[in-house]
Amino acid sequence: MSAPKVDRDLCIGCGVCASLCPDVFEIDEEGKAIVREGADCESAGCCQDAADSCPVGAITL
User: Fold this and answer.
1) DSSP E strand boundaries for 1-61
2) Which of 25, 29, 37, 41 has its CA 20 to 30 A from that of 61?
3) pLDDT for 4-48, tens place per residue?
4) Owning domain of residue 56
């Protein structure tokens, strides 16, 4: 699986990704989602759920 990416132009900062997959995603000081440095979707096992749950489709894997 490739590294997740967040389209910050689409992101509305709802936080569902960070709630579902806190080892990979977090909300930054601008109120938008970012991928944590060194995050590993393989070991986290929740990236697909986070991407599927994003209400604006801002996460790609």
Assistant:
1) 5-6, 25-27, 33-35, 59-60
2) 29
3) 999 999 999 999 999 999 999 999 999 999 999 988 888 878 999
4) 5-60
